[in-house]
Design a protein that fits this description.
heterodimer, A: alpha/beta, Peroxisomal Thiolase, Chain A, domain 1, 2 domains, 9-stranded mixed β-sheet, two-stranded antiparallel sheet, 14 helices, globular, B: mainly beta, OB fold (Dihydrolipoamide Acetyltransferase, E2P), 3-stranded antiparallel β-sheet, about 40% strand
Chain lengths: ~400, ~140
């Protein structure tokens, strides 16, 4: 298998109520990625596109083909991916495999969502479609409800007083907003306080509004290239050194492992093994903080803390830019935003920029970062991990 | 290969407060709700069984922001129950004011009943769902 590099990327600002269509957002991020990779649309041999809810948000299916046409990648194979919130990362992983296998030398991966085109009840309904439509949705499952149940289970399983856990969770949101306030692409560029998190409206017990990521409009894109092409096009390739992916069934069927997410542990193990690293080698991590409790559970699965103890990482500041394991220095899904088809691509874009050292101007650069980890969870079922490295 | 218990069969039984599952003839594990194969060993030789419908609450949430069409139901409590036979299933909690539900309900014994979700624009059929009451 050949080495594969991320050679450039593009990213719209993540917003509420974008005036643009999903296709326009997608094309904007894609052209920026093409331009800063020193290539032209004619160099793109295939496109992987992440978009989950285009039929609901724009009345637009098959957006990948219109993207290819709109940006002048005429007639190239264009494929759409769907894995709920992990959609973008699945698209990146699949492209990495295709370039590694020698099928293509240069691919565009772009993801988009325009979730705020839907009102909250419809958006909540569509996100609930990632629960089991037979055995979960009839009971009124929403996505916050899934993580709310994990949260109560976590407190009970590890015997942590709910008040203690809630304060740790509030710290997760506060940190995300601190860095989001410094990210010009973030949806919410405003700092938060623990008090404000804990006084927010209740969504589904025990999750309050500021424990939850928002609905978001936005797009992100990256260009992947084979080693030979990457060496010609950039002095700062970021290598996709390891990948992993795993699946699972509805939440109750995972009972043997809960509140641990078994699929994540399997996925990240694949990625670490392929990259020849362990969690102690990771300098920067973007993980799937769809809810504050989700960050805590993820950090443990990824190997950054003992099970039942990851809340302490945020409590003690170990997840900050100069901490033991800097996490979500982009603002994460909570503050940067979560346009689900774009989220994974945005995480790859962010980690690539950290590894290239591009973020000093924004005050968000992790000094000397060489190894990055991407973690994206779709529903409570699909999980993808990518290890990125620089030379 | 046909499902031993498809959703329609499961849902019809639940409408009479009977909870159907599958017992694997290879490893003995019980799968509920049913799947095509055994949840533990992926075995295909399974027999249909009726579960007791009794179990213990493992976790819960009381939801205030609902999906389209379900707003009139809020607040409502969703729970996960560990059944006596082993598997966990999801459902709702009856009897208690959802606003008063706290972590104190974790570990409480419950027994199965049901309600029917009539379906919405995006669901293919109506669906019976478990609704539990305290024992």
């Amino acid at each position: 298998m050949r080495r594969v590099a991320v050679i450039g990327g593009g990213h719209t600002r993540f917003v509420t109520h974008s005036p643009n269509t999903s296709l326009e957002l997608l094309a904007e991020a894609s052209m920026d990625a093409i331009a800063n990779s020193n290539i032209s649309p004619k160099d793109i041999q295939a496109i992987n596109c992440g978009n989950v809810l285009g039929e609901f948000t724009d009345g637009q299916g098959m957006i990948q083909s219109y993207l290819a046409d709109d940006i002048g990648c005429n007639h190239v194979p264009a494929t759409r991916f769907e894995g709920a919130c992990a959609t973008g990362t699945i698209a990146v992983r699949d492209a990495a495999i295709q370039v590694a296998a020698g099928v293509y030398d240069i691919m565009l991966v772009a993801g988009v969502e325009k979730a705020t085109a839907m009102d909250t009840p419809l958006a909540t309904r569509t996100f609930a479609m990632f629960s089991d439509s037979r055995y979960e949705n009839p009971a009124g499952f929403t996505f916050p409800a899934v993580f709310a149940m994990l949260c109560h289970l976590y407190a009970s399983h590890y015997d942590i007083p709910l008040e203690t856990l809630k304060e740790q969770m509030a710290q997760v949101s506060v940190q995300s907003h601190y860095y989001g306030a410094r990210n010009p692409n973030a949806q919410f560029q405003k700092e938060l306080t623990v008090e404000k998190v804990l006084n927010g409206p209740m969504v589904t017990t025990p999750l309050q509004l500021m424990d939850c990521c928002p609905f978001t409009d936005g797009a992100a894109a990256v260009i992947l290239a084979s080693e030979e092409m990457a060496r010609k096009l950039t002095d700062t390739p970021v290598w996709i050194a390891g990948t992993g992916q795993a699946s699972s069934g509805h939440l109750a069927s995972q009972s043997r492992y809960l509140p641990r997410i078994r699929a994540r542990e399997l996925s990240v193990k694949q990625a670490y093994k392929m990259a020849g690293i362990g969690p102690e080698d990771v300098d920067i991590c973007e993980l799937h903080d769809c809810f504050s409790i989700a960050s805590i559970i993820a950090a443990e699965s990824l190997g950054f803390a003992e099970f039942g103890k990851a809340g302490q990482l945020w409590e003690t500041g170990e997840t900050k830019i100069d901490g033991k394991i800097p996490i979500n220095i982009s603002g994460g899904l909570k503050s940067k935003g979560h346009p689900i088809g774009a989220t994974g691509v945005s995480q790859v874009y962010e980690v690539s920029r950290q590894l290239r050292g591009d973020l000093a101007d924004q005050g968000r650069q992790v000094d000397g970062a060489k190894v990055g980890l991407v973690d994206t969870l779709g529903g409570d079922g699909v999980i993808v991990n990518l290890v990125l490295k620089r030379d | 290969m046909k499902y031993k218990i498809d959703f329609q069969t499961y849902s019809d039984a639940l409408k009479t407060n009977r909870l159907l599952g599958l017992k694997c003839t290879s490893c003995g594990a019980v799968t509920c709700p049913p799947k095509m194969v055994c949840q533990e060993c992926a075995g295909t030789e399974q027999e249909t069984i009726e579960l007791s419908g009794k179990g213990e609450i493992k976790t819960f949430t009381t939801t205030y922001i609902a999906s389209l069409g379900r707003q009139v139901e809020v607040p409502y409590t969703v729970i996960m129950v560990a059944l006596e036979e082993g598997p966990w299933i999801s459902g709702n909690l009856n009897e208690m004011d959802p606003k008063k539900v706290t972590m104190d309900i974790i570990g409480r014994k419950v027994t199965l009943g049901h309600k029917v979700f009539p379906g919405d624009l995006y669901s293919s059929n109506e669906a019976a769902r478990p609704v539990f009451s305290f024992c």
